[in-house]
Amino acid sequence: MSGCPLSVEGMASVLPASNKSMKSDRNTNVGKKFVHVQNPYLDLMDEDILYHFALGTKTHNLPVMFGDVKFVCVGGSSNRMKAFALRMHKELGCEGDGEEMKDICAGTDRFCMYKTGPVLSISHGMGVPSISVMLHELIKLLYHAQCCDVTIFRIGTSGGIGIEPGSVVITDTAVDSFFKPRFEQVIMDSIVTRSTELDRDLAEELFTCSKDFPHFPTLIGHTMCTDDFYEGQGRLDGALCSYSREKKLDYLKRAYKAGVRNIEMECTVFAAICGRCGIKAGVVCVTLLNRLEGDQITTPHDVLVEYQQRPQLLIATFIKQQLGLCRTPPPAPASPERTLQC
Ligand SMILES: O=P(O)(O)O[C@H]1O[C@H](CO)[C@@H](O)[C@H]1O
Ligand SMILES: O=c1cc[nH]c(=O)[nH]1
């Protein structure tokens, strides 16, 4: 994050041991949409240790480190999220080549985190349990840092259904394996059902933005979240397979009929947790294959690398537009393209 005009590098971010946790009056900022938590116990705690990030309210000055965050991008792989941070570094016109950018979570190898100006880039690993742990700590971090008007994106990979590999799917509805827009969470010995609503306007805005990239198809559709890559997604190539090829195809075709265009492993919990905490959320995943045609990912590595960049390209452009750093769309003749002071 060094050299970026919007970064907080250089300010005291690690607190002396004696410091109290950072708390402030959120009521002074009327009109702003603050990230909130849904836990009455949190404010009663003297200290909050974000264990999987190796950060804490007494050891780190979270408002100084993260108070300006407006966009958070999450994705499964740490390399992808570092690449996205480097891309944003360049796109925001920050100084240097970004190679000096530090992993804020270097104290742990669970997740990686990079900050470029108002953009935070974080990995979440694979599957609901992993992203769920990350999201709890991320949202507490944004809450402790008193962040407001935050938008969060998941930029991922997925298996497509009935669409060309390399297509980018912007999720309108995150559904479970029964094609229902819900996330069922086992909480102790109860099952709690939460809504998986995503921001429709955001999906439409992203779709409009995708028109800048005619070299790959982008569409809006339902995304199905499963708890497994193999049997959970009806694959015939796992170590176990308890159904027939016909049953698999019947399932995928029913999914398609229900509006599902791609399958991945995190979108329902992502939508459910972000929605409950007042964070505008979007899911954008590229498809690596068409599941009606096969299960194995046979696409060459270099093509897969290019595919993975598609959601990044779209989100980076969207963020630049939101920050007023892009001319498109709409062209603004009266106000020339803004540049950031580095
Ligand atoms: O590419 P990412 O973000 O990891 O997402 C997808 O890829 C993983 C499976 O290969 C799952 O986590 C799935 O959701
Ligand atoms: O088929 C696929 C490809 C990527 N990620 C998934 O979850 N499934």
TrEMBL record:
CDD domains: UP_hUPP-like (cd17763). Transmembrane segments: none annotated. InterPro entries: Nucleoside_phosphorylase_d, Nucleoside_phosphorylase_sf, Uridine_phosphorylase_euk. It holds the Pfam family PNP_UDP_1. Residues 70-320 form the Nucleoside phosphorylase domain. Belongs to the PNP/UDP phosphorylase family. This is Uridine phosphorylase 2 isoform X1. It comes from Echinops telfairi.
